[in-house]
């Protein structure tokens, strides 16, 4: 379900999918995907509202997607044999994600 959250970074109300919720000392935090900006953000639970039905019908400007047949790789270092090989990884590392985002910009 899509909600409306206030993004401190964008300084406006945005449509968002709530992906996670966690408790902090001052209340609950929500991990959200902004469907019109393709950004992830966290917001306080006091900054979430129910989306009006008329706005729910507007198509999202951003969609979650994956690169077809592209798997993450990482550098495996063997200190005993003093070798390094590129091999499959379970997740993309931070440097690869940042490099890809720079390429998109």
Automatic annotation (TrEMBL):
Record-annotated Tudor domain positions: 3-68
Enzyme class: hydrolase
InterPro entries cross-referenced by the UniProt entry: SNase_OB-fold_sf (IPR035437), Tudor (IPR002999)
Entry EC no(s): 3.6.4.13
GO-annotated molecular function: ATP binding; hydrolase activity; RNA helicase activity
Catalytic reactions of this protein: ATP + H2O = ADP + phosphate + H(+)
Full protein name: RNA helicase
């Amino acid at each position: 379900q899509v909600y409306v959250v206030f993004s401190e970074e964008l300084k406006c109300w945005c449509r968002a999918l709530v992906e996670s919720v966690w408790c902090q000392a001052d209340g609950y935090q929500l991990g959200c995907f902004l469907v019109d900006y393709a950004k992830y953000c966290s917001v306080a639970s006091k900054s979430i509202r129910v989306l009006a039905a008329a706005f729910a019908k507007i198509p999202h400007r951003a969609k979650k997607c994956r690169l077809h047949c592209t798997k993450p790789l990482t550098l495996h270092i063997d200190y005993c044999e003093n070798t390094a090989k590129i091999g499959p990884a379970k997740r993309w590392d931070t440097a690869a994600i940042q490099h890809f985002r720079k390429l998109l910009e």
